[in-house]
Amino acid sequence: MAPRPQTLKELKATGYRSRSVKDEMRTNLIRMLREGETLFPGIVGYEHTVEPQIVNAVLSRHDFILLGLRGQAKTRILRSLARFLDEWMPAIAGCPLRSDPFVPLTHHARALLETHGEDTPIEWIDRDLRYQEKLATPDVTIADLIGDIDPIKAATLKLDYSDERVIHYGIIPRTNRGIFAINELPDLQPRIQVGLLNILEEKDIQIRGFPVRIPLDVCVVFSANPEDYTNRGNIITPLRDRINSQIITHYPVSREHGIQITGQEAWVSRDAGVTVVIPEFMRELVEEVAIQARKSEYVDQNSGVSARLPVALIENLVSNAERRGLRTGESRVLTRVCDLANAVSGVSGKVELVLEGEQEGALNVARALLGRGVKALFGQRFPDAYKPRKTRGAAASGEGEQLAGSEYRPILEWFASGHHIEIADDMPTAEYAKRLGQVKGLSALAAKYLEPRDADEAAVAQELVLEGLHQNSILSRERTDGSVTAYKDMLKSMLSGLGD
Predict the structure, then answer these.
(1) Looking at 364-483, which runs of residues are DSSP E strands?
(2) Domains and CATH numbers, the chain
(3) pLDDT in tens, 305-346
(4) Whole-angstrom Cα distance, residue 275 to residue 456?
(5) What is the residue-wise DSSP string for 50-79?
C-alpha cells in the first residue's frame, strides 16, 4: 500500500475531490450493494424489514430516526453506519473541526493554508473516529452539543465575542465530516431540541446572539423509544419535520431469529475447566420465555421486553451448570430444566410490570414466565394430553378415537402407583440420569419428541417432559431445601394436602 499524502500538494496530485459525508456514504453503500457485501453484520431478522428502509434513507441522503422499544439493536445499527464512510479521510492537521483541505472551515485552517500554502500538513482520520454519539439526558446543554463563547479565551487573545476563535466547540461541530447520533431523543429538553433545527436544515451552527455561522457537513441520526413520547418527553414538531425518515424497529419475528441473536450475544464459552453444553431444546425454551413475556398480562407491553432477557437467562443457566460441574468435579455438564430456578434473576429485572404484576411480585411473575415458557414449548413439541385424536391403527381397525394422552399413560401410572422422583441442582450427571430413568415410559417419550443427541441430553429431555406435565397440571411438583425438586402424582398430592 502506497503511503498516504502528507501535504496539500501531494493530496492534489492524487486527484482527490471533496464530497459531502452523505455523498460519501451513498457512494460506498452503492459499491457494497453491487458487491453483495453484508451491510449490517451481527444484525439478525431485519433483512427484509428495517434494513431496506435504512438503505433507502442513506441512498436518499437523509437524516433519520430509529423508533423502537428497548433491546431492538437501535444503537448497534447506528454505530454500524460508520462502515459506509471511507476508511481514511484527509483533513488539515490540527484543525479542531477536521476541515476539508480544499474547503477550510475555521480561522485556524485558513491561517495554515495562508502560511504554508501547498506545504500545508495533512492528517488522516480513521472512519471509526468519525462517528460520535450522545445519550440525551435532561442535563444536556446547548454548549455540550453545539458550543459556547469562552470569555477567558476572548480576554487572553483580546478578541471580540463575535470572532469565531473564542468559541469552545461542542460535540456536533467536532464531528464535522462525520456521523453524529443522539440516543433517546425525547429525553432532550425541547429548548435544546430547537438548537438542532439549523443543523438539520441550514447545515450551520449559531453561537448565542453573535453573527458567527459555521457551515457543517454532518449526517445526524437519532434513536427513540415510543414509550418516551408520553412518559418522559416528546420530539418537538419542527424537529420531527426536519428528520427525513422515520424507521420502525421490532423484536425477532421468529424464535429461530431470537435463538440466533441470543447465541451471538450471550457469553457461554467459559474458561473454568468445565464444558457446558446447551441442548437445542433448552435454547428454544429460553427464547420461548421471552416470547411469553411479550404476551404476558403482567408485563407492560408498551415498555417492551428486551432481547437482553434471553441473553441474561441463558448466561445464568450456563453459570448454574458451571457451578454444578465445579462442585461435582465433572468436566462436561449440561444445562437442565431445574437450573431455571436459580436463573430467575435474569428475568425478574428485565421486565416492567403493570399494577397486577406489581401486586404479584417481580419474582413470582418471573417464575410464572419460566413456567409459561416450558408449557408453550411442551405444547409445540408434544401431543395434547387432553385432546382425543384418531390414531392410524384405530382408524384402520374401526375402533374410532383414542386419547393422545395414552402416550403419557405409562408415566402417569408409574406415579399413580405411589412412586415419586427427586432431583437436585447439584446432583452428578450419572445419578441425575439414573433417577429419571426409573420413570416408566419417560425415556421413550422424550426421545420421540425432543430427539436428544446423546444419553446426557436424553436425561435433560426427560426432565423437560416432567416439567411440561406439571405445567399442564398433570403432575405435581414441589421444590424443597432450595435445590431439590420432587415430582409426584397430582391427585395424591391434592388428597394429601386435604388430609393435612
Answers:
(1) 388-389, 402-403, 421-424, 475-480
(2) 37-87+130-247 (3.40.50.300), 251-381 (1.10.8), 395-500 (1.10.10)
(3) 999 999 999 999 999 999 999 999 999 999 999 999 999 999
(4) 13
(5) HHHHHHHHHHTT--EEEE--TTSSHHHHHH
